[in-house]
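Hi all, long-time lurker, first post. I run a small reading group and we've been trying to get comfortable going from sequence to structure in the token notation. Rather than ask abstract questions, I figured I'd post a concrete chain and ask someone more experienced to write out its structure so we can walk through it together at our next meeting. Sequence below, copied exactly:
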Amino acid sequence: MEIYCPSLTTYQRLNTRCVKVGDVEVGGKNPIRIQSMTTTNTMDTKSTISQSIRMIEAGCEIVRITAPSIKEAENLKKIKAGIRKRGYRTPLVADIHFTPNAAKIAAKIVEKVRINPGNYADRKNFKTYDYTDQTYNNELERIRDRFVPLVKICKQNGTSMRIGTNHGSLSDRIMSRYGDSPTGMVESAMEFIRIAEDEGYQDIILSMKSSNTQVMVQAYRLLVKKMNDEQMNYPLHLGVTEAGEAEDGRIKSAVGIGTLLEDGLGDTIRVSLTEEPEREIPVAKILVNRKNLLENYEEEIKKTDSLPYDPFFYKRRKTNSILNFGQQQVPRVIGDLSQKNTICQDDLASFGYIYASKEDKWHISDQAIDYLYLGKKNIGFDLPGRLRIISDYKDGTSNFSGLSIFKVSHIDIIPNDEITFLSCKESDNVFKRLKLLPKCIVVLETDKVCASSSLRQFFIQCVRHDILNPIIIKRQYNNLSVDKTLIYAATDIGSLQIDGFGDGVWINTMHGNSFSNEISFGSLQASRTRISKTEYISCPSCGRTLFDLQETTEKIRSKTDHLKGIKIGIMGCIVNGPGEMADADYGYVGTGPGLISLYKGQSVMEKNINAENAVVALIDLIQKH
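-- Answer (accepted) --
Happy to help. Here is the structure in token form:
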């Protein structure tokens, strides 16, 4: 299988061309740039200037502003003048959807325009068309006529461009030919790139955004492969669209963006949170700074020049089924109480098990661990029936409770006919022995800085040696802040899950068991490998937004967060819905001032409801179905 990045074992940045965005250079040997987007009304000049400056002072290097129509595009001149008057040279980007005439005006004012190939020259009607090669080529000529005027203006004015494909807004034309797929996302952008290149214009940055991290990662990988095939090297703008808020949004962003950064892909990033835009910047800095750490390390990891799996399509690694680990099971979560001096029933509350003493009954949450590691300790109370114990291996004369976990030094005495666990590092050569231990579950750790690469190499060796033992990914995070721990762990776990690797997760942090548990389940949810709670696909807001996204998201969450497995899209305007909701089950979309439309999938169920009644109507819709 062809490799999609410079190296799978050591950090190497993909060599891309340098594109100037005003005074800021993106790509090449330049630092990875951090950007964000204003949430103010673009016609509110004063507020947009003030918010832009707050973003810049927080570390935003490129500021994006929506221009949904000609009047907003024209007002960018006042906004830019106001920012420059205050001494800031940060380049501005006009975000364009549906309105080529606004793009042409903005391209003469700001340093960069962003267009969405899914709606620049097309309107989405959710219809399927049967194209012949000739009729499809006719459509491409129509797009060329629509797009070339903007290319010429950008070329004349030294304006750069982002061609930003969004998974949820692929045109009916692309969907009809390529389906709702990463391949369709890549082709959507490539059509526009080829037109631009025909005009001698290459000041282009590319993005492949989705709220589904699997789709997002696969699309960027395919894009790099396609660029290699066509001898292109455009810089990449990374982002998970509609990531959400709080921990969930940060974890989801880390899973998507962090996975690609680990492999050297990405020249500029935007973390999309349903929060104030300046709050996105610290998260982006953690992701970029960790990448900088990777650059300074050259660790000995066995080189890989080919892959025994498909990095462009999700498929779980084939394993034996042992207990509730393995091929047909969701990844399991392990909690750790081995460091507690004494263990009581209340200690399990942070792992999703709450004991009601009056009822003598356990209440179990949807994010309750599956296994509990006790080390050498025992407990003096009855556990919930579904919770299993893992304990350190003891000789036959000792009291023993639970399943045994062995060290590598004891691998030769592991019985081959009993269910056991083996704790090892990615550098341990245990493959021949594992062949003889079909009932052994591996607990895999690493102390390498390039954790994802080193752990992935172990999985690759397992695939090549036809090792079918389930593998638990274990990571220990010490001396890191809460935010860094969250981002690092989500990247390490999520990147492997996206490649189909990992049958369990075991995370230890210095910030408490509840926090470790939240990261474990959150990373599995964000990588779409174990769904344990409601998922909210909420956009980060912008000047097009027609209601208070943060307040509305919290209202909807308070009424629906018990609906395990349901995905709810909360979109500020029609640009981001229904298409941008992609695979949401239900949608809440602003369609006009004070008006909301409700969707089931991508079908409108109720139109233009008064916003005051819309949350209740959404709950009624969900209950009805």
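A couple of things your group might point at:
The radius of gyration is 25 Å.
The chain has a mean pLDDT of 91.
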